[in-house]
Protein: Nucleolar protein 11
Organism: Eudyptes filholi
Amino acid sequence: MAALCESFTLCGLGPSGGVGLGGGLLALEPGPDPDHVLLTDRGRTATLFKVSDQKPLGCWSVKHGQIITCPVVCNFETHEYIAVQDDKVLRIWKNKDINLDKVFKATLSADVYRIHSLSNGGPVVLFKGGGIRTLDVLLEAPQQEIENIISDEVIKWSEAFTEGQQPVLIFATEKDGDFFVYVQKLKMDSLHKYKLEQQELSKPLSFTAYIKNQMITLLCLYSNDAVYKVLIPLQQNTEEEEQILSKSLLLNLSVSGSVLKGTSFVVLDKDHIAVLGSLAASGEESKECLTIWNTKFQTLQISKELPLGTSGQLWCYEEKFFFTHGKVLTVIMYKCETSSLAAAVGKLKDSQTPDVSSFVNWNTLGDEELVVSFQSQQSVALKSESKMTLRSKRNAVAKVQPDTVSVGQLLLNLKDAPTTVFEDELRQLMSKAQMPDFQATIGCVITALINRCKTNPKYYPRSFLLQIVQTRDLSYSLCPDLMAVALEKKDVHLLQICLQRFPDIPEEITYACLKVFLSISEAYLQRVDVNLESVICYIDIEFNNKEVKTEIVENGFNAEREQDIWDTKVTKETHLTADGEFCPVGPQKAALLNAVLHSAYSETFLLPHLKNLPAQQAVLFLRYLYYLYVKCSEKINTTLPGIRSPTINQIMDWMCLLLDAHFTVMVMLPEAKQLLSNLHKFVRAQVRFYSELNKIEGSLRELQRLNHQKDPHTYSIEVLELI
């Protein structure tokens, strides 16, 4: 039995996709972690994604005018990434590298077709002429001559395996309508060439293969809407130069008069394959769809229509399908179970109907979809409905029994309930700690609250949301609309808690929080609840409350009469000194900014947003960072006291980011001139100080060595001259 489960969008592919995939997707390869994938676009960019968080972890590009010509792969032994630029230039880098111009580079003597990375055999390089080298051998002499094996043939497909600790590479070529298969065992340096048996009026469109018990099983998707199987033994005793490979029919891609015009396919297990293509019945318009077929019983198990169209490419890793759908890269999870006749014909009863799906993209769920997402993939009906009690308006909503009705149905029943009943039922639902898939349930509860906020602008359960975020281990991907609503409501306390607790906040949201925190007035912040744990130990709150007062003047009105909470007016700050002695912001704003400093980010994706920060806010933020930098430098261990206080590395990284984004503007701003000068002087003094320390480092180490050698009980006076 096979089933398609939940789907979600990994990233956009258009110019606004945000991950550099505007040219379309060239390939998708596994990353260094089972939850990571490497995306290579048809241009000059490679991006590493964390699938479960739908978050990019890194992005690397070659220069304009250069192009990445084959899929970027990960070396699983060294955790390095390998790319081929302009067919012959090899580039190798690690996660910490940013600029590909500064990473390892080697120019090869022949054009590369593809690099295959094996988990326990290292990368294998296949050249367009059919020559094969392991990466280690190739790097010993990058300009070594590469033999041309296939002459006028063109490589159409290749794959690599490990069999008995031995790397095996198989690739298919085409010449004048004939197709050939090559099998190379690298350690034994043995190459076998085969010719595929011809099929009248049809040709192979796609290949895939797997290896088991010294036997390669090659599957070929032909243009006559059929999949054929070819068996190739690894042990070959014959010296015959070219053998003919016979094929057998594995599967006809037709069902009930409809024919699937497949474009690509993958093997799921010994009895199931997935095919991406266009399904059409006679006289009807074809529809692109993803299908799973049972090859044992020749049946179509499940089909999903893809109305926005695909590129025809299909990848499969860790029980997930990856394919383009419209202008996005879509991920669909699937499950396959042992084949049986009952499952193949759809008669197998699903004994376990999960109440909550293991993964739900909460951002796309509507009210009705909440129900669907919590039902099994076989659309098993709910067991029963609970009885309704009509005592009063408060009890007008059905009291559903959690054991018999799904969470989605419960939330749908509560859609129009009074606020008190609505929140009470949700609290009762969350109290069932033993419920399976508890995190997904919490995500759905937050989604229900957010949906009510959207339909009723006056409704905002601030305390309820705070309670959930503070007491549950959540993530941004589980409730992506939560921070958007908090930004809309200017709920700085909730935003602060989310920044502190969510590990996967997108850079766009981090920037939005920073902009709100810098824009909001000190007077307003003094009236709201903010966690001051990160600042209470290094900012004198009582003293600073006197120092950070600002006078806001506009058309004769003072700050006390002004109702607007935003600092869009001319502000005269009287609390700053030239050397940054006092904190340029109040303790509440400092605590909020500290939460931003602690959030995880990728410089590549944050910098474009940071460039949009208004100049006055950028200067204020830099002043605060400079203040923190000076404070850290006062301590011997360069560490600020307190809970969740920023580290010196976080402060320096944000300083560099801010200066990279706004340096030209700051140089031209009169109010930033003194700040930049002070920062320059302070950094220069720090460099000189550490330079002097480096000069006596050797002498101090020698002194430490001498002290260790002497008897600690012997008294002596020594004079050491440091030169």
Summary: The chain is about 30% helix and 30% strand. The radius of gyration is 32 Å.
